Amino acid sequence: MTGQGTTELTVQENAEELRRTVTRLFGRSLHIRTLDTGSCASCEQEIRLLAAPHYDLHRLGFFFTPAPRHADLLMVTGPMVRAFENAARKTYDAIPDPKIVVATGACALGGVYQPDPFTHGGVGETLPVDVWIPGCPPSPLALLQGLLVAVGRLADKVKDLDFTLNGTPQ
Amino acid sequence: MPLWTLRGLRRGVVTTRYPARPDASAQLLPTPPAFRPEVLTPDLADRLVAVCPSRALARDGDMLVFYVGACTACGRCRAEAPEAAGASGEFELATTAREHLIKRIPLAGRPT
């Protein structure tokens, strides 16, 4: 029991250290570069809504930037069509370290398209993804949660869900 | 000025309080399904796997493997078997590890 307690404490300490690091590095200001690798533009529509008054992501310290050099976070949508692979790598390389890659939407997570000669069927094998945001498209609230998970300001909630229902059918 | 802006001004606040407080509109969002293991027979699971357009569901022996990341919340599994699948109501699905999105749901009875 004692050993287990020590391990848990270490994990907690590590998590706390990571949180401090992320907060120090990205503080309360983080710039987002979006990258469309062949999405249907629904994800872009939802991402665009983040800047609308109802969601207003600027209040949380997130900003969009068109320049990869100014970005801290790369938000990738679409199934990574092979024609775009080179551009995606260049965009990733152009972002200064430290950087976060967020895969956004079911296509980017490998759901809708299978790997074939035209597409990788997901961004995971091309770029090192740090945060995965499911949804088709993910709603602005889901994107907001994803961004806050990316900077460590919200907890990863889905790992504790088991997607089973109990009780009577609704 | 759009009508909803006036409405927001009248109520005082336009912007959502999320994440400090839950957003009421979250209840209206389409969400991935959740399953009832006690009524999910292997045959029913195979039907759900066949009906899923984005290959979010797969059968692995006596388990239904649900990759939440691939789910488009289209609702076809819920339409196919309302007794076994319902809305999960979860939209906060972002994760730092892809494995967290793979859920294994035990099936009722033995596999056929």
Keyphrases for this structure?
heterodimer, A: 170 residues, alpha/beta, Rossmann fold, five-stranded parallel sheet, 5 helices, 5 strands, globular, B: 112 residues, alpha+beta, Alpha-Beta Plaits, three-stranded antiparallel sheet, two-stranded antiparallel sheet, 21% helix, 18% strand, elongated
Based on secondary structure, the structural category of chain B is alpha+beta
Low-confidence stretches of chain A: none
Annotated CATH topology of chain A: Rossmann fold
**N-end to C-end Cα span of chain B:** 62 Å
Broad CATH class of chain B: Alpha Beta
Question: Can you characterise this structure?
Answer:
The complex is a heterodimer of chains A (170) and B (112). Chain A is of the alpha/beta class. Chain A has a single domain, classed as Rossmann fold (3-Layer(aba) Sandwich). Chain A has helices at 2-26, 42-49, 85-94, 105-108, 140-150, and strands at residues 30-36, 62-64, 73-77, 100-104, 131-133. Chain A has a 5-stranded parallel sheet with strand order 2-1-3-4-5, sandwiched between helices. Chain A starts with a helix and ends in a 20-residue tail after the last helix. Chain B contains 3 helices and 5 strands; from the N terminus they run H-E-H-E-E-H-E-E. Helix content of chain B is 21%, strand content 18%. Chain B is elongated. Chain B has one domain: Alpha-Beta Plaits, CATH 3.30.70.3270. Chains A and B meet through strand 5 and helix 5 of A and strand 1 of B.
